[in-house]
């Protein structure tokens, strides 16, 4: 752990004015969670002049927030490789180190959801993700179960704000070169020949049917450049913004529909919001937020009973008369994934996952350290479809029309590719299909009596329609790739049908997850008690409790979700600020 003295040093550093709050300090807004959405919310609320306390459970990640990072001891040993010593960077800042997440997750992932590798550090999963950054297409709002006020026309300015703050690039290396383009070249050439259209995805976000693109990222200047380098920078320059890291919020303190403050795990300390007008915004992510809601007496009765009967919370849990029965944890969505695989002599592996830490390629390292350019300035790999292990890059999208499915709902497919693990024959390319918008709920979250969160109702591909979407998209992709006779098909094997192959892949989480979970505190009209928050992101039945993060997105999106999550956060803040101060 970061020694306490280092935390105090951090919080009194010039950039971060907020000190751990004084005993009696109150705040207009307390934002819980410093991830994708929370950093947007904290910045925009403080920009509007309100006093804001942002409470993040994890440690600092980016070197930007570690005072004297070049010489300081890191919070944990796995925060930076030797070759970054003397710089102001950690693993979280260097694009090429993203893949190392799959080799070393200690003290990064959240201990209370062991099934899922989300990051509980400052920045949330944006500290470790692949920085794929897509402007959401109109249909992600218009055809996805949002209430009035959240259509694509309503979202336009919010999306613009997010993409102005964090611009997208398809040239991650500042020298403008595309490194290691073999995978992109192979697949895109075949798709072009098969009649798919070459687009620059973020210029034409609505063209998502038989299109392909270079991948778009929010990398900049050779750095990750996520919300910690943008939103948090402006927020922390304001005297009315305070950040408290290494602090786990246990629950909100509430009396009926009125929330008076938050309670910190461990110490039991309470921090109040401004009396009468203050508000709490939960931005703790798709499982962190439901957990806090459940521990605050908000959720399905069976789940609240687990909390009420738990050794940790039972004795002090809010009285049953005050429970609010909302569908917290339901409607868990994810991209549902199937890996296909081909091989081709042009595909060359690069060892992103292991030697990158201890022994990176010398010329690539020199190029990064001297010029912040080259292989390490981009994701593993830079662009287009080349990647080891479990990170992804975009190739293509296809929209399958509703008439193909018994429920009449179109299914949106996204294709990404990656180079397979190191080792002979080193020329395998995996193509991953994500069944997205239009697909079914995969399950719900459940709280255990030890306050861990687990999945219920998983496996993936529970409906025949979703399975069919994976089969049809696979058949079409393979047909397209067959224009190149040099491509060898590995999965499915040449003598196996696509349907047989898709059905042979296990439907468990590890084999089929997209790492894009959402929907567990969904926004909506509450006619059938199917939503948790209203169109102002306010929790039903409360006066001043809000949720702004991936949990409120009602339906799965087209592409990797942060573009949509940041846009939703921008919009939600705009609406929250317009609400009258009481209620
Ligand atoms: C390995 C990986 C790769 C990914 N790649 C991409 C990609 O390339 N592009 C893309 O668009 N998406 C990607 N994603 C998904 C994306 O990162 C997430 O969807 C997004 O970060 C979710 O945003 P959020 O604000 O809802 O939650 P998070 O970003 O997870 O933030 C939640 C924050 O709340 C904090 N918190 C939780 N509980 C508490 C508590 N009780 N008290 C205080 N703080 C708390 C957490 O520590 C965390 O910092 C990836 C995800 C992973 C795991
Ligand atoms: C928070 O407010 C409550 C009243 O709502 C009060 O009893 C309590 O002392 C306050 N706590 C702090 C730490 O200010
Ligand atoms: C590191 O320092 C350089 C030069 O001062 C600066 O431009 C860059 O933004 C810093 N990066 C981080 C992640 O702090
Ligand atoms: C993770 O944290 C624990 C507890 O502080 C520490 O003992 C361990 O060395 C850390 N692991 C790494 C890889 O840094
Ligand atoms: C697609 O368009 C981009 C940008 O114009 C171009 O660089 C790339 O080579 C094109 N790809 C194919 C396969 O034509
Ligand atoms: C860094 O950039 C300069 C200027 O383009 C170039 O001369 C030098 O070779 C680069 N260094 C490395 C290690 O690539
Ligand atoms: C996608 O494009 C294909 C080929 O042009 C077309 O047949 C199909 O109807 C389109 N899908 C949708 C949902 O428009
Ligand atoms: C918590 O409880 C769940 C469900 O009973 C169990 O699977 C898990 O191992 C427990 N975790 C810990 C850390 O005790």
Automatic annotation (TrEMBL):
<feature type="binding site">
    <location>
        <position position="249"/>
    </location>
    <ligand>
        <name>FAD</name>
    </ligand>
</feature>
<keyword id="KW-0732">Signal</keyword>
<protein>
    <submittedName>
        <fullName>Carbohydrate-binding module family 1 protein</fullName>
    </submittedName>
</protein>
<dbReference type="GO" id="GO:0016614">
    <property type="term" value="F:oxidoreductase activity, acting on CH-OH group of donors"/>
</dbReference>
<comment type="similarity">
    <text>Belongs to the GMC oxidoreductase family.</text>
</comment>
<dbReference type="Pfam" id="PF05199">
    <property type="entry name" value="GMC_oxred_C"/>
</dbReference>
<feature type="domain" description="Glucose-methanol-choline oxidoreductase N-terminal">
    <location>
        <begin position="27"/>
        <end position="337"/>
    </location>
</feature>
<feature type="domain" description="Glucose-methanol-choline oxidoreductase C-terminal">
    <location>
        <begin position="443"/>
        <end position="569"/>
    </location>
</feature>
<keyword id="KW-0274">FAD</keyword>
<dbReference type="InterPro" id="IPR007867">
    <property type="entry name" value="GMC_OxRtase_C"/>
</dbReference>
<feature type="binding site">
    <location>
        <position position="121"/>
    </location>
    <ligand>
        <name>FAD</name>
    </ligand>
</feature>
<dbReference type="InterPro" id="IPR053208">
    <property type="entry name" value="GMC_Oxidoreductase_CD"/>
</dbReference>
<dbReference type="InterPro" id="IPR000172">
    <property type="entry name" value="GMC_OxRdtase_N"/>
</dbReference>
<dbReference type="GO" id="GO:0050660">
    <property type="term" value="F:flavin adenine dinucleotide binding"/>
</dbReference>
<feature type="signal peptide">
    <location>
        <begin position="1"/>
        <end position="18"/>
    </location>
</feature>
<dbReference type="InterPro" id="IPR012132">
    <property type="entry name" value="GMC_OxRdtase"/>
</dbReference>
<dbReference type="InterPro" id="IPR036188">
    <property type="entry name" value="FAD/NAD-bd_sf"/>
</dbReference>
<dbReference type="Pfam" id="PF00732">
    <property type="entry name" value="GMC_oxred_N"/>
</dbReference>
<keyword id="KW-0285">Flavoprotein</keyword>
């Amino acid at each position: 752990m970061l020694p306490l003295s280092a935390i105090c040093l951090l919080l009194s550093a010039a950039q971060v004015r907020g000190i751990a709050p004084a005993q009696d300090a109150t705040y207009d807004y307390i934002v819980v969670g410093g991830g994708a959405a929370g950093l947007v919310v904290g910045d925009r609320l403080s920009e509007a002049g309100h006093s804001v306390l942002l409470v993040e459970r994890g440690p600092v990640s980016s070197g930007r927030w570690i005072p004297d990072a070049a010489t300081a001891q890191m919070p944990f040993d796995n925060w930076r490789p030797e070759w970054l010593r003397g710089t102001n960077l950690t693993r979280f800042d260097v694009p090429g180190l993203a893949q190392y997440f799959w080799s070393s997750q200690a003290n990064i992932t959240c201990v209370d959801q062991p099934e899922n590798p989300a990051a509980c550090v400052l920045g949330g999963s944006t500290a470790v993700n692949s920085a794929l950054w897509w402007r959401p297409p109109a249909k992600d709002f218009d055809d996805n179960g949002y209430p009035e006020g959240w259509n694509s026309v309503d979202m336009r300015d919010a999306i613009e704000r997010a993409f102005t703050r964090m611009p997208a690039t398809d040239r991650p290396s500042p020298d403008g070169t595309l490194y290691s383009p073999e995978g992109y070249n192979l697949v895109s050439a075949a798709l072009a020949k098969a009649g798919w259209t070459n687009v620059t995805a973020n210029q034409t976000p609505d063209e998502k049917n038989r299109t392909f693109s270079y991948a778009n990222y929010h990398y900049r200047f050779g750095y990750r450049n996520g919300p910690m380098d943008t939103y948090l920078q402006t927020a922390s320059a304001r005297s009315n913004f305070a950040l408290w890291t290494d602090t786990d919020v246990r629950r909100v303190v509430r009396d009926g529909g009125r929330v008076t403050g938050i309670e910190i795990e461990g110490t039991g300390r309470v921090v109040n919001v401004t009396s009468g007008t203050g508000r709490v915004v939960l931005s703790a992510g798709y499982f962190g937020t439901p957990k806090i809601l459940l521990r605050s007496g908000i959720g399905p009765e069976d789940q609240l009973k687990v909390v009420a009967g738990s050794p940790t919370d039972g004795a002090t849990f809010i009285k049953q008369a005050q429970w609010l029965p909302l569908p917290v944890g339901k409607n868990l969505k994810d991209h549902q994934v199937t890996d296909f695989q081909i091989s081709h002599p042009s595909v060359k592996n690069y060892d992103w996952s292991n030697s990158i830490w201890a022994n990176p390629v010398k010329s690539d390292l020199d190029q990064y350290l001297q010029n912040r350019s080259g292989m390490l300035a981009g994701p593993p790999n830079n662009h287009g479809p080349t990647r080891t292990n479990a990170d992804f890059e975009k190739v293509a999208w296809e929209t399958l029309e509703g008439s193909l499915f018994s429920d009449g709902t179109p299914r949106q497919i996204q294709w990404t590719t990656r180079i397979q693990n190191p080792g002979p024959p080193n020329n395998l390319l995996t193509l991953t299909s994500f069944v997205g918008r239009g697909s079914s709920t995969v399950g719900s979250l459940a709280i255990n009596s030890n306050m861990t969160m687990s999945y219920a109702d998983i496996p993936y591909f529970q409906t025949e329609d979703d399975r069919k979407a994976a089969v049809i998209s696979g058949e079409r992709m393979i047909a397209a790739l067959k224009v190149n006779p040099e491509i060898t098909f590995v999965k499915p094997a040449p003598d196996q049908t696509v349907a047989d192959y898709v059905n042979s892949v296990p439907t468990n989480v590890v084999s089929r997850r997209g790492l894009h979970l959402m929907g567990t505190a969904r926004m909506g009209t509450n006619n059938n008690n199917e939503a948790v928050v209203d169109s102002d992101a306010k929790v039903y039945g409360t006066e001043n409790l809000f949720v702004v993060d991936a949990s409120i997105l009602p339906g799965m999106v087209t592409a990797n979700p942060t573009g949509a999550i940041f846009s939703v956060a921008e919009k939600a803040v705009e609406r929250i600020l317009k609400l009258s101060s009481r209620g």
